[in-house]
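Limitations

Structures in this collection are predictions, not experimental determinations, and the ligand pose is part of the prediction. Treat each record accordingly. The example that follows, with protoporphyrin IX containing FE as the small molecule, is included so readers can see exactly what is and is not provided: the inputs are given verbatim, and the output is the predicted complex.
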Amino acid sequence: MSEPVKQRNYTPLVIILSIAINVIVAVLFFMPKYNGDVSFNIYILPRFNAIFNSFTFVFLLAALFFILRKNIKMHRRFIFAAFTTTFLFLLFYVTYHFLAPTTHYGGGSPWRGIYFFILVTHVFLAALIVPLALITVTRGLNMKVEKHKKIARWTMPLWLYVSLTGVIVYLMISPYYPGQ
Ligand code: HEM
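Predicted complex:
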């Protein structure tokens, strides 16, 4: 018999993190950009972000692969790996958007429409994924298995979509970065 899991109340943490992360990202979007000197090529940061997003996508697929085989230990490990790359992504994302002016997509039709469709769904679902992932992981940690499964069936595909479209958006916009 496995030991019962100690139940923790993560709700305040989930609420605080969900609000804080979304508010920081929104404020950055509207804030005037830093215009002092930066001693490195800031356009390296979104490239790192695309790499982090690709890793998140692969880690999530691995977590899914293992849970479908009922391997909870490996499921948990890959979920933590996905949270780590997502955290690194956030760190680099915030730094980049603090430093860089907005890059405008320079492609013509029909790519322009495709780009904006992917971008808008990516941004909207990325905001939603913050509380969803946190609620899902806390239900997992507390081993509330049925409730966890119920929400995870939304979180997993949406998080996969957000991480993959993060890479696609980068690949589409990167030719339009200054100096490319
Ligand atoms: C955001 C984080 C997580 C996501 C997206 C996620 C995703 C999933 C998915 C898609 C399933 C399969 C649902 C189904 O059968 O339809 C599942 C099941 C499960 N997950 Fe997670 N998971 C997460 C975190 C965790 C954590 C941290 C644990 C802790 C050990 C955990 C433990 C489990 C367990 C015990 C099951 C049920 C396995 C079974 O059917 O026997 N999950 N999860």
